[in-house]
Amino acid sequence: MKYSQVQTVGWIINFYAGLASVLLALRAVFEILSASPSATFVHWVYQSSSTLLQPFREVYSVAPTTSGHTVDFGALFAILVYATAGYTLVKWVNRRR
Questions:
Q1: CA dihedral of 82, 88, 94, 97, whole degrees rounded to 10
Q2: What is the rounded CA–CA span in Å between residue 45 and residue 40?
Q3: Per-residue pLDDT reduced to its tens digit, 29-68
Q4: pTM above 0.70, yes or no
């Protein structure tokens, strides 16, 4: 089965947008649940998502809740931005056929 270049580019965009969203979602969940940053997997997620989160660090701050857990609104906003950007790019690439 042969795939077109447009389909391949769309899959690559979806893969990277999805990967970014999953890493950022894991980061947000780990912060809400107060996961130990010294755990290997949690540390890896924090390190991997740090670059993705960099453009959004000053947009929203990390807000502690009344129960002592933290909510990273920057990560949640970044998920929205990466998902929207991926969707928009795929639509734009598909129009260019």
A1: -120
A2: 9
A3: 998 888 899 999 999 999 999 999 998 888 876 666 667 6
A4: yes
